[in-house]
Amino acid sequence: MGITKSEIFSTEQNQIATIAKAFAHPARVAILQQLFKLDACICGDLVEEIGLAQPTISQHLKELKNLGLIKGNVEGTSVCYCINEEVWQETKQLFTTFLNQDINLKGQCC
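Predicted structure:
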C-alpha cells in the first residue's frame, strides 16, 4: 500500500480528509443522524435503530469518538454517546469554509 504523505499537506487539508472519511460510511452518517434526532445520550438503542450488529456499531462509534465528533459517558456497564457540540461546530466551520471556496469564481473557469 502506498504512503499518503500526509505531512506535505496542511493541517486543515488533513482534517477535512479525515472527517470526510468518517462521513464516507453510511452507518456513521446514520449514527450521527440518530444522535441529532434524539438530542440526548444514547446507549444500546443504536443497534435497534440502525439494524447493524453490536460489534459493528461499536466499531463505528469508536471511529466517531476518535475523531471527537461524539463523546461517551460510562454509566454502569454501558457507554452512552452524544454529539460533541464543540467539535461539531468546528467541523461545520471547517467544511463551510472549504465548500464556500467557489463563491468568488463567478463563472471565470472554462
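Summary: The first helix runs from residue 11 to 23.
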